[in-house]
Amino acid sequence: MAYKLKPVDIIRHNSPEMAPVPTGVKPKIKPLKNIRAVLFDIYGTLFQSGVGDISLVANEKSKEREVLIRKSMEEVGFLLQDQKTPINELFMDTIKAEQDIRRDQGTPFPEVDIIGVWEDLIGQLEAYELLRGRTTRNNLMQLATLFEVRVNPVYPMPGVLDVFESCLDKGKSLGLISNAQAFTPLLFDAFFEDGPHDLGVEEVLCVYSYDHHFAKPGIELYQVAMDRLQALDGIKPEETLIIGNDMRNDIWPAQKLGFKTALFAGDKRSLRLREDDPDCKDVKPDVIVTELEQIPECLTK
């Protein structure tokens, strides 16, 4: 029997309500002049996250993940014929193998398309007659979404819709720049019943790592954003505010290209100050916010 839940419903059914954990960081708010566009990170900034980021960064091979990956595969319709094969370890190794290929090709921070990873993994298991089930794009998407929300439950940060509305009222173009997968934009549909574009985000300013095979903290995603901002309306990096929760992934690379930056320090689970990272030693965000609603205070019309 085919698994009936759509990816959006999978997210809804597996996302318990969460509240941000205070960080103790004091906000540093000041007016930033001439900002024309605001680009948000997703995991840990717009959405609370169990691991503080998309789950791929965790690189875990725990017993709990092994149970969850088997349960997810079987619910979607892939019947495992062996209880000893370490499926989660094979999954993580498949991710690493693809990343290594891209590193060898010159990409320092490669990203995978997780749907392709699942397809490769299932192909390996089928080749050794360890799995039965029919592979389709639909059930691969279901599987990828189901496993992700089980190992990394998410819930909106307070004030997402309000900050979008306030930025739009001030005439700012909105965008997203994030380590992300195909299921990531569906978070907006799942919790707000509208996709990013319907909420006012410019489609051309949605820059997702899986689309380009580049991940943060590499500067490549920011270069894509820079080119698209210029093409959209001649918007320059110094006229763009990048908002994220990670000093190395969000603030450091954005500043290297001349973007204005805001560190979101609103949730202890996701705040990454990187105080011991030499790359971040002298990096300071232009502003620090502890609530999304503080962002419009930094923007002038």
TrEMBL record:
It comes from the Bacteria. The keyword Endoplasmic reticulum does not apply. Transmembrane segments: none annotated. Signal peptide: none annotated. GO terms for molecular function: hydrolase activity. Keywords: Hydrolase. InterPro entries: HAD-like_hydrolase_domain, HAD-like_sf, HAD_sf. It comes from Cerasicoccus arenae. The keyword Hydrolase applies. This is Hydrolase. Gene3D superfamilies: HAD superfamily/HAD-like (3.40.50.1000).
